[in-house]
Amino acid sequence: MPINTQATAAQTSSAAGDLALLGLMQLVSPGLPIGAFAWSQGLESAFELGWVENEAGLQSWLEGVLEDGLSRCELPLLARLQSAWAAEDTALIAEWNSWLQATRETSELSNEDARLGAALVTLLRSLELLPDARLIPDEPGYITMFAWVAHHRNVPVRQTLLGFAWAWLENQLVVACKALPLGHTAAQRITEHMRSRLVTAVEAALQRDDQELGPILPGLALGSALHETQYSRLFRS
What we know:
Blueprint lengths: L4 H24 L14 H6 L6 H16 L3 H14 L2 H14 L3 H20 L15 H11 L4 H23 L4 H24 L10 H10 L10
InterPro entries: UreF, UreF_sf
Family: Belongs to the UreF family.
Protein name: Urease accessory protein UreF
């Protein structure tokens, strides 16, 4: 019986795609033991200051952070870092890692990225998934190591960005459900609304030139700075 090589190749390709998808799902899972649940990325401060008080306000806040923050900073950086990992370009990995650290406008935001990055390194070491030590920059941030895992698991760049944006949205809504009188149904309404916004943000991120990069979030930066001395806190940022 002749072997259908085309069918076999298609099955192999499909299996590889499935493994990449599952690897991405594991990476963005709330159950990933890196402590992401402890950080609100400035959202708790927005609640405390009265800038976000209800479902409509939260949706508006998330839209602004996505458009003026993630689509201009984390998402395009993920694409660049994943390409740098693929090329094993040590200098470029270190350069973008340092650039990202320099964009963190408060100690809490900087600390969050550094601690999540360190936690992800620890997890990857236990899973024997770390890259060659010479490729890892000093004090690798969360975005840098996220990009490495996505590259290692052959996740397409666009899917990497969508997965990261989805994880960000889920974490923000978990924060809101804990710190704001927001029910889970309301959170799902926001999710339904934001799905198309995530796609648009990823498309914008993939089209940005280097000189266009950098967050434009003065309100979040101010709120984050005030959070450092906030009297009562549930989250570390």
